[in-house]
């Protein structure tokens, strides 16, 4: 269906966010929450980036498919995204796996999460569906990608990152012709195909797909009856449509949103402890690679009503201070030294403690004289008085904490409870 004149394509589109995965590479950080519900950037959750991109792009019809330990994610969406008003034809529908098509069947693949909700999506009266991963950090105007999709007459348009060719071995890779039509889709190839005219780079899939809804609907119903299918977009739906339809690549740099401070398009998969820690610590730089202060493209989230941060004590060796750091509301920095760290809401640090390159999730307590370096503290962790973390990896492991390949230490409440029981 062609849009009527002067109608934004986003008005006829649904953003469908896939947020059912655990994110097992984040280890214990996802023991109690799905990866999209993991905290990021001081006050937001990872899923807020996909949802905010949709809202800022003009898409006011959104749905989010949940499955693994979804309570934290569902509660966040209800609290943080309840400002959408159905009477204005805008909404965020939460679609938990609920055995809608089979009493023994949960969502068995990314495509199946859409298939099981076909009747609901039909009721939205949309022409286009924008399928999004709910676990990446980036700013993107989907209206630009929608416009390319319609202008090229594509059956599917796939968002792509331009990456150094050999780094693409970890992605699904697009082989394209000179007009950006996808001629082949290769999942994690050992020898990725380069971009025409650019032998050093390849196009890697971002997990962002735009379809005409009628086209995708028909393909999903055919795939449902295919006993050899894994019912997954990357493994089944996309390769079929590349081979049997018109698939186009959309380059992220064409629709990436920047404030003017970012020096290059920013996209991060924060799916490992090291990547999660680094992306948060990066935000404390003088000029961070991602500008969260850009009011023209806000990242919407649940805005808690809390008092401002407070810094107290002003003595040598006992001075409440934070340098090159982000400190959220309701934090009290009491005689502690904070440097190159990111503190979420409600953190308390006590006298003579020092935190360097620490990511502290909400409601963390750091007691007196604790010395912390290069670590991630999960929500509600209370660090015992005088404990040192991040200085000696062998000692950290002996104390029951997880040390990543990059040397970042993850500390959770369960780990601290076990440590205290042994002490």
UniProtKB/TrEMBL annotation:
Q: Do you know which Gene3D superfamilies this protein is assigned to?
A: Hexapeptide repeat proteins, Spore Coat Polysaccharide Biosynthesis Protein SpsA, Chain A
Residues involved in alpha-D-glucose 1-phosphate binding: 107, 172, 187-188, 205
Q: Name one GO molecular function term.
A: ATP binding
Query: Can you give the residue ranges of the Glucose-1-phosphate adenylyltransferase/Bifunctional protein GlmU-like C-terminal hexapeptide domain?
Result: 307-411
In chain numbering, where does the site feature Could play a key role in the communication between the regulatory and the substrate sites fall? 67, 106
Keywords in alphabetical order, please: ATP-binding, Carbohydrate metabolism, Glycogen biosynthesis, Glycogen metabolism, Nucleotide-binding, Nucleotidyltransferase, Transferase
What are its E.C. numbers?
2.7.7.27
Under the subunit heading, UniProt states: Homotetramer.
Query: What HAMAP family does the entry give?
Result: GlgC
| Full protein name | Glucose-1-phosphate adenylyltransferase
This protein's species is Loktanella atrilutea
């Amino acid at each position: 269906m062609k849009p009527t004149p002067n109608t934004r394509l986003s008005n006829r589109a649904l953003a469908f966010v896939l947020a059912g995965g655990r994110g097992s590479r984040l280890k214990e950080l996802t023991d109690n929450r799905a990866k999209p519900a993991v905290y990021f950037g001081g006050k937001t959750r990872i899923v807020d980036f996909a949802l905010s991109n949709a809202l800022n792009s003009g898409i006011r019809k959104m749905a989010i498919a949940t499955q693994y330990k979804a309570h934290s994610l569902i509660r966040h969406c209800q609290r943080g995204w309840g400002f959408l008003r159905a009477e204005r034809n805008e909404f965020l529908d939460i679609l938990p796996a609920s055995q809608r098509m089979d009493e023994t069947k949960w969502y068995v693949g990314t495509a199946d999460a859409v298939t099981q909700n076909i009747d609901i999506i039909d009721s939205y009266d949309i022409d286009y569906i924008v399928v999004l991963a709910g676990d990446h950090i980036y700013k993107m105007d989907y209206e630009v990608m929608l416009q390319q999709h319609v202008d090229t007459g594509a059956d599917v348009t796939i968002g792509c990152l331009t990456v150094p060719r050999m780094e693409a071995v970890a992605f699904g890779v697009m082989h394209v012709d000179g007009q950006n039509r996808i001629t082949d889709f290769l999942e994690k190839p050992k020898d990725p195909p380069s971009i025409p005219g650019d032998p050093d780079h390849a196009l890697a899939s971002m997990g962002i797909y735009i379809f005409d809804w009628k086209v995708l609907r028909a393909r999903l119903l055919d795939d449902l009856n295919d006993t050899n299918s894994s019912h997954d977009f990357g493994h089944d739906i996309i390769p079929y449509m590349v081979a049997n339809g018109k698939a186009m690549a959309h380059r992220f740099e064409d629709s990436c949103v920047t404030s003017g401070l970012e020096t290059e398009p920013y996209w991060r998969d924060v799916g490992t402890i090291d990547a999660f820690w680094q992306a948060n610590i990066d935000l404390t730089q003088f000029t961070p690679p991602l500008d969260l202060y850009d009011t023209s493209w806000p990242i919407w989230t649940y805005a808690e009503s809390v008092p401002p941060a407070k810094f107290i004590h002003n003595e040598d060796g006992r001075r409440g201070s934070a340098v090159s750091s982000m400190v959220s509301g309701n934090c009290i920095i009491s005689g502690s030294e904070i440097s190159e760290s990111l503190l979420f809401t409600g953190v308390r640090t006590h006298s003579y403690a020092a935190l360097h390159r620490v990511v502290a999730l909400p409601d963390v307590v750091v007691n007196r004289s604790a010395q912390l370096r290069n670590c991630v503290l999960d929500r509600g962790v209370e660090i015992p008085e005088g404990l040192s973390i991040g200085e000696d990896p062998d000692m950290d492991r002996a104390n029951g904490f997880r040390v990543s390949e990059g040397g970042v230490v993850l500390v959770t409440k369960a780990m601290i409870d076990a440590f205290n029981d042994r002490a």
